[in-house]
Amino acid sequence: MSIAATTARQVTLATGKSKDRTPVSLAFLVALWFSLFFGVVVLLALIINTAIDGSGRFDIELLTNYVSVVRPEATGFRAGILGSLWLMGFTALMAVPLGIAAALYLEEFADPTTRWNRFVEVNLQNLAAVPAIVYGLLAVAIMALLGFRDTGIVLGGALALALLILPVIIITTREAVRAVPREIREGSLALGATVWQTTWRQTLPSAIPGIATGTILGLSRAIGEAAPLVVVGLAGSLLFDPEGVMSSVTALPMQIYSLTSNSREALREAASAAIIVLLAMVLGLNALAIFIRNKFQRSW
Fold first, then answer.
1. Where are the transmembrane segments (predicted)?
2. Are 100 and 211 in contact (CB under 8 A)?
3. What's the mean pLDDT when you consider all of the chain?
4. Domain 61-296 CATH (choose: 1.10.3720.10, 1.20.1250.20, 3.90.215.10, 1.10.3470.10)
5. Where are the domains of the chain?
6. How far apart are CA 115 and CA 112, in angstroms?
7. DSSP summary character for residue 57
8. Rounded CA gap, 203 and 50, in Å?
9. Mean pLDDT computed over 187-193
10. How far is CA 6 from CA 14, 16, 210, in A?
11. Which of 50, 80, 141, 209 could cross-link 296 (Cys pair, CB 3.0–4.6 Å)?
């Protein structure tokens, strides 16, 4: 390389660095960090304030008792916690197999050039941004078509939450499958395996860590949703545990929603403590997703 070319390259690099440090770029960087800092501070302030408000109710009765208006100081969220677990179980049972199957079909078998598949692609991206309450309306419509008069049951709530997280599971599963190197597929096909055998025995097992992470993150979103459950008609408070898919059910977000506006201070204090319990459940699911990703993720 000539001296002139070297000098020109150094000037270009110096100019690029100077452009990165212009007043406009520095102002944008400061605004970006301030926005991040402000958001984190506000979130921490809300969490700390809620924890202080509910600090008097961090006891075992909060988890084992039912909501009580007779003894509000001993009210608990047993029905809501168990109801949320029932809903998450049936939500995963409905959404995960369907979401993984749809993602595998779209990524491995479908022809992306057809109008139908392009239509599905566009709507799948749009469904991920639809407000949660719309999925509640859709679940009510589906339950009515199936002949159910009472939609405030485990099946109705799980259906609404399954519809809510289905686009998320499909998108994350497709990304996980897409991350598997093409050479693995080509090697399997070269040895005589069919496309289905390659997908089932090679591609899917290699994508399991990413699929599991996306699924758990989707469930962590669903466990904190109240809007679709309100539309479906879940009870705000129950004094019994769910016993099956056709049983009436409540959920922890529903009970929190119904008690935060109550006039009794003891019930509002219990609702604040329940918010921390719900937050711990969500953070626990997120931590599990991070653990699975870090433990089983492969570097291709």
1. 26-48, 85-106, 127-146, 152-172, 222-240, 270-292
2. yes
3. 86
4. 1.10.3720.10
5. 61-296
6. 8
7. G
8. 45
9. 89
10. 12, 15, 45
11. 209
| Per-position DSSP letters for 190-256, written without gaps between them | HTT--HHHHIIIIIHHHHHHHHHHHHHHHHHHHTT--HHHHHHT--S--SS---STTSB---HHHHH
What average pLDDT score do residues 219-237 get?
88
Confidence of residue 44 (pLDDT cuts 50, 70, 90): very high
Distances (CA, A) of 37 to 21, 44, 46, 283, 286: 22, 11, 14, 20, 21
Nearest to 124 by CA among 116, 111, 270: 116
Question: Are 169 and 127 in contact, with CB atoms under 8 Å apart?
Answer: no
Q: Which amino acid is at 230?
A: V
The confidence score (pLDDT) of residue 214 equals 87
Radius of gyration of the chain (CA): 25
CA angle 68, 74, 78 (to 5 degrees): 70
Query: pLDDT tier at 277 (50, 70, 90 boundaries)?
Result: very high
Tokens matching residue 232: 């479906």
CA atoms of 22 and 82, how far apart (whole Å): 56
Predicted TM-score (pTM) of this structure = 0.84
